[in-house]
């Protein structure tokens, strides 16, 4: 059987592959020789080097800048949080101050409402009885309420059966004056209900066991009532310090001796009171009080000279009234 022989024609490679083919042939012939195909120029190397450095610098910057930004952001947040805490503390302080002021305002309002209870009670009883207020009734009630002076406390008493706190004796006295006397009631050379109340408070404070006893009352006219009374007091250390302080401060032995003799002694001061009524307002517009301090002192000391020395420097004078501004008795 005849062997079939096939012939293959070797075609030359395309032109674009000839250079690579030639290079491959040369490499096969001389493998120790290196060929650089398409070696870059110096300009290309320079651009490549610069590009690599730029990339490296950018990489370094990218690795450093986030840390700086993080530290800056953290520091900024720290400053911001500190200012926020300070602002919060300031807001809380203002809120607490407003709350305290609100509570104080409520307490003041409640105190005023409680203080009006006795006045409303007096007006209610007056309307219930169907009688109009007159100067005679005011005079009688004045001596009844102030027969033992004024107490020290203005605090509320225990609640009644309805749960309403009872007014203290001092509150009842003040409410009586406010409901029966003009706001600018004249009392000696001064005016005002509070001035009259302060007069009684200091008389009670400067003496012990004060007793104001009505002995006689007379109606001179529809608008004027006069009354006589005895104010009995016990001389205490406070009396000597506040009323007869000139005896304690004197260098005279006799003055000091009289002060010692007066201590603990009971004095009965004759008093006269005049109430002047205002028909239009149905309120007392003037209260004139006269306290005779000379008679009981003369009876006790037995000498006009000694009595004169005691009265001349005393702060409790025959025409006694309280000067609230100076805090003394004039």
Structure description:
The structure is a single chain. With 330 residues, the protein is an alpha+beta fold. It contains 10 helices and 8 strands. It has helices spanning 15-29, 42-129, 135-145, 169-180, 193-206, 237-242, 245-249, 253-262, 294-301, 304-312, and strands at 181-187, 190-191, 208-219, 224-234, 266-278, 283-291, 322-323, 328-329. The chain has a 6-stranded mixed sheet with strand order 2-1-6-5-4-3, sandwiched between helices. Helix 9 (294-301) crosses helix 10 (304-312). The N and C termini lie far apart (169 Å). This is BZIP domain-containing protein. It comes from Hyaloperonospora arabidopsidis (strain Emoy2) (Downy mildew agent).
Enumerate the strands of the largest sheet in spatial order, edge to edge or round the barrel.
2-1-6-5-4-3
CATH architecture grouping of the domain at 133-153 and 167-313: Roll
Count of runs of 4 or more consecutive helical residues: 10
Secondary-structure element series = HHHHEEHEEHHHEEHHEE
In total, the number of strands is 8
